[in-house]
Amino acid sequence: MESNNDSNTIWISPENDGSKYGTYNAPFTDITETVNKASPGTTIILKAGNYNNTVTIQNSGTICQPIRIIKEKGDGKEVICTSSWYFYEVSDIIISGLTFEGSPYQALSIIGECKRNNFNNLRFVNCGLDTKSLCTFFFAGPGAESNVV
User: Fold this and answer.
1) Between the CA atoms of 32, 129, 49 and 12, what dihedral angle is there, to the nearest 10 degrees?
2) What is the pTM for the complete model shown?
């Protein structure tokens, strides 16, 4: 399922030499930009390292072709996200294998009509410690249906 040259796979790394094509050897660096350009069936693989930018996701997959955001397999190193991720009105997204560490507010906020999203194999370390936000995982809005955590 994870391939270095599959046309439905986009690679992201927190470190890049400037050439950005979304390939294994020239990965993108911006998670938000990449996810919001992804189409149903796209797998986005995050290489190990620290990701410090707030992420806003507003693009959905489909039931048969979800958008997957996963950690690179095999190297044993962690993907660490140190800011908040916001999901607005999205469905059919799979997030797996990431560590959220030190996010001052909610690590994950699921807002609006969000259906059939799957959040698995995630780790949270010292998130939501700011006095304005005392939680790690936040659901808001009328449509948080059939999400799996």
Assistant:
1) -10
2) 0.90
